[in-house]
Amino acid sequence: MDLSETSPSPTADSDTEQDYDCPICQEVLKMPIRTRNCQHVFCRSCFQVAVRSQGPPRPQCPLCRSPVSEREDRATDIHQSMRKRKGKCRACGKKKVLSKMRLHYRTCRKYIQEFGPISEPRDPLPAQTPELAESSVFNRNISNPAAWNSAGRRYECPYCSLVDLSDMELVEHCVHQHHQEHSPIPTNRVKEYDVDGGKEDLFEVNQAAGLELFEGDILYDKKQGRNSIIGDEYLWPTTVPYYFEDDLDINAKGVILKAFEQYRLKTCIDYKPWSGETNYISVFKGNGCFSSVGNQHVGKQILSIGAGCDRIATIEHEFLHALGFWHEQSRADRDDYVTIMWDRIQTGKEHNFNKYNDIISSSLNVPYDYGSMMHYSKNSFRNGTEPTIVTNIPAFSDVIGQRMEFSDSDLLKLNRLYNCTRTTTFLDTCDFELENICGMIQGQDDQTDWEHVTMATGGPDTDYSNMGRCTDTGYFMHFSTITGKEGDTALLESRLLYPNRNYQCLQFFYYNSGNPNDKLEIWVREYSGINPNGTLRMIETIVGLPEALWQLYHVKLDVSTKFRVVFKGTKGAGVSTGGFSLDDVNLSETTCPEHVWRIKNFKSTMESTPRGSAVYSPRFRSKYGYTFQMGLYPNGTDINSEELGAFAYLTSGDDAIDNSLPWPCPWMQITMMLMDQNADIRKRMSNQRSVTTDPNEKLEGSSMFYWDNPRTVGIEVADEDGTTYFRGPGAGTSVYLTQARALSRDFIKGGDAIFLFTMEDISHLVASQPIPPTTNPTTPTDDLCVSIKCENDGVCVIDDAVKAACRYGIANVAIVLRKLEDLYVILWKWV
């Protein structure tokens, strides 16, 4: 039975046919009742038959074996909803009011031919009567086990040797065969809240909200005209003031701050809390995701991050609009790269696919970008099942519309538009492909050197950047411990680095093929007026046995002066057959991830894991003491196929630690990131989703708190080694990433996928952001710009209220670039 898409949901968090199907008879509910303890819903007769069949000493829920009463309360809310809602007959497709669906099934010829005559629930039978074995309430689904198997999980009966049961088959088996047992049936199913509601794209969110916005997510004043933002006066300063309104979700605030960090890492754009500047961006929780384009000079310029919009790429997308960007497919040259299928577009939405000349929307001399986060997806605003945008190169059909991260071209255009020459928090990257090894130097006070190689005795056979995919490439640095004597060292030092913050994250891949006694240490050499030659300070020793694998490491630094990073290898006692290798080194002034989960043979995992089945990460203990884990659905959840699902759960840990923690868990943001393993951190398009533990959130229909101690609200589960623990309810998304995108870029490298996790306390975001007491006076531009002459129609602007600079609007930049190209042609001919 397919429910009408426009019908309201009978519960707060679901809208599926299972909401109205009895889990016992698998038909539409008749006189529904709801159990008080576990909130499960059944037909009244089905429930009473199942309960009375159990016998003494006490009745239990047929689904989870929680204690129940034979006379539970009617589910009047569902009954009333069924009297209003319509669903489709599962056989003939006709729409009927749900409360009348059983009557329709009695006379529907197609239904009777396919499923047989419908059997109404019998009147309650006395416990242990022979009639129970013949009751169609149970036999109906034994003959059709597939109807019970939607979750995809398989279980073993805990009381006998029967195996390979679905969750519902296990329930029925235990009700019939083990009614005398009184422990919960271990189906390991916990509540999982889908924070995205199955909506992958921001345009889906806005359409569901009924928004009628220009191009789907743009606030646009027709009186002002699209040309109005062309010109440098509509750019923001490179440090943009922002204000978080009180109605903004706490999780959204945390994700916005993460988006700001990506801007700082990859561009010169920075963000600061509003301190009285005349113009600023006010971020609030509207009914969807939307923004104006460019600095509109209206003082308070609004940008909405509503429910379902708190994905990092959606936030970056909306802030790109605010910085002056239109959608990629509106470019003047778009017909060279995509074909718009006008007959497949929803009526009244055709204007969203208009294109504009290069005076209005410039490409900034950057080629058309199928991978831009500003591009529509192939199915945007479609009126059926066929795509509205067809890429002229078919291979890019599933590329357009990505909502993971900035593409290389997004960054190139943004950095050109704002004249960026460096980023804010990036320090260094090296894949060792060039002979100059990124300016690194060999240490002076050591006995041997690190070597620049493409393979090493004892391993590895390839580097990590290219994994042997390209000829004449694939270099890494190697310190051999095969020769030499115990205690010999080799120092590899980075170029000089100049920090802006007092914290950094060093990330690198490391291969250990040496002796267990060999040692790799991370040092920093800090320079000051007192020590112009630098002082060495040890940060961390990398520990671990030799393993034939490139391993990812993160090291936290806390340097505030000019410095170098030093990799110090030391030969240990004993015989070695290899040594240490380094590749893909990145250093940025960002926080390090706390935990790493590597899934080997990930493509095989996606192919072999049944739909609706999860694989679980190890449990991780955060620095705050809370223990958590991720559940990954590699082959999709029950709701969404071809999409990876990702959910975060609190779990039980050490009893003493758990008992000392505040419960419910207050305002901890858990971030689950699938790492794009590109060698350069600036070019990565990692995919992530964050959820936050709201201590006030309650389980639906219960007085229990969602993020309470897992021993209170969770279920007992077991690790592969037999260790048992409790897993609490989960929160995440069924549309984490499509399988097609998971197979793209460098999400899988050497066959493996790498997930990174953090848990951060964001309770400071609960309080209101302070409002500046007064607006800062604006510095007269004439005073600072009097000595500045801007050629090629440039405009002098005041950057950060302290510095005059020439800026060029989108059209002006295009003109300048064309002039430079003409000049290059003239010089080339002259030479």
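^ that was protein a. below is b, sequence first then the tokens
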Amino acid sequence: MRRSPCGFVTTRRTGLWRDGDDQFQMVRDVCRPDVCVVRSRAGAARIRFGNNELATSGPPRGETIYFYKCWMCHNTGARQGDESGLVGPSLQNVAGRLKTDEALAAKIRAGGPRMPAFRHTFSDADVADLISYLKSATCCYETDQAPKSPHYNADTTPWPVSTAVKGGARGLVRLASGRPLEGVKVQLIAPNHVRTTVFTDVEGRYEFPRLQAGSYTLRIPTPMPFKAYMREGVSIREAMPLEDIVLELIPSAEPVMLRGGLPPTSEVMSQLSGAEWLWNLPGTAEEKTTFAKSCGIGCHSYEMIFRNRYDERSWRLIVERMKTGAQGGPGRAMDPDSEAGSVVKGEIDVVARWLAKVRGPDSKDAPVRGWSSRPTGLATRVVMTEYEVNRRFLNLHDVCGDAKGNIWFNSWHAPYVGYLDPRTGTIKEYKLPAVEGGGPFVGAHACRVDDKRGYLWISQGPSQPGRRALYRLTMATGEIKQFPPVAAVNFGIAPDGFLWYGRTGQDGKQETVRIDPETAQVVRAYPRPTTPHPYQHAVSDDGRFIAGGGAGTAATNYGWILDSKTGKVYETYTDEQDSGAARGGFDPFGNAWFGGRGGPLVQLVNEIDKGKGVYTRLHWPPTPLFPYSDFYTATADRNGEVWGGVMHGRGFVRFNPKTGRWVVYENPEPSALNRFQWIDNSTTPPTIWYPDFLTQMFVRIQPLE
């Protein structure tokens, strides 16, 4: 361990793995804790930025730049049926078309009539690496062959992962003055790269679960406002005491107006959640609210936007692409003279002008502030475990568990599904075939497990161009069967294995349908009076009730519950407040819960058996930085407590409707970009699983009580 010139503790190596015949070691960059250099014995090098590795130069680094900056508008699927004019041609032969590197670089920097200019976001090295990739034989990446991740080594480095929550190594976190620090995250990284994180209590003490004896890396994840701290080669065995961790504050920015303002260095900025980014930027309430409700409803993370700089013309094109086309899919035509088109155009105008002011070529980064409070009390009584995924560029979407304890997953931007064995960190994957008679497989949306029949069901979402399909995987054999998309996006599954979804009936009205899991045929349809198609179909534990919320946007205020016993649909509205009920499920008492893209947890109170029908209650969280955060999904555990990831925040809420108590568990990384979670009710207390869309890791949350 040594002190870097940037003033924080750094180490020379945090892990080893093999790539072919080359052995790589990961080296922490001395001035950027969010960046690791990966260097081989042969001299090759990569950079890992966040959870996506790059190379220091050349085509491998250019490939990652291409995926995050070019793929959305130049992939094959996006061109199928595009009506927006914002999707460009394949770049596979672009070097030949533009003849010289100079012409290609000029095009990248200046853009075109319907292409953003990257001169303010790309450095000269970025442009050179992107060009080297565009000229390579591997260009251009499509979703059918996502590359392997060098950070995943559970297959080659067997290492058991503990399910315990206590009984391991313990220690103290304090300042040099001796004052103990509560709510500090302390993390051990195992040889298989599985990360276990615990929190300090009011006395500054922490205790890990009992882990496999061996050598670990000990660090403080997201230590802000303290300087980085990491020690490698720490020997861990049973309940051994560890030496005190002494933290040092990052010096405040000058001039000091209020204590706590930090310089906008990469060390600091990499630790901000999306909501903290937005909170720190200047702007009016209208500008920030329009941005949050237009760009931040779950499909986009704030920080991925704010890390860039563009001129206003380029921001306008990017926002228009986002507003009129699903991620990676074909775009829709926008009629600015229609009512809907004028609203979208107005939002694009507000957001583009504001982004050009705060993240434009001439904007300057001011000192920043993270949310000043750390977890206390019950919020520190938790163990969090993070697992690496086996491929890059997957964009994990959903998880669902089976009776054997495996955690199944799907990918938003790749045809891969599979399961994580949480006992070892190993992954078994399957590749879904292309849609019969359709275009390339862009990605999946929802996954649901039917333990009774042994099936995994996978749907496709709005990014899939042309024809879609519904997939059924037999978990015991890996056999994959493809059906027409009688269920898509966020379908529901009942205890008897039947699927529930919605469609437009022959009379043009909405109806909810029950689908046979063996034939994928609709066996019954239930008309729904007035509410539009919902984003989620949730099914109660006994299979009697089916519920839906809004259409998946913040600007909706309705929900409904179908009583399949009588066939009657009960609708409910909140006229005074948009709630944006998105994804969710039922609690044990027959009430439906949804994450609110308008900000709250949305409860559809079920009093049908009392003769009172259904009504809506909105539960507003006491989370930091509200209203710049919201919920994508909310589900209840077996005790009736409701869980949801704080979108654009850094934690998970646990809400007890009976007592009104909220607990906010803070994640190790500054993200809780949770599309859907699965609750393991076989443990005491229940265990929460979710795939983080930003960090691309599987996260297990184990509350101690």
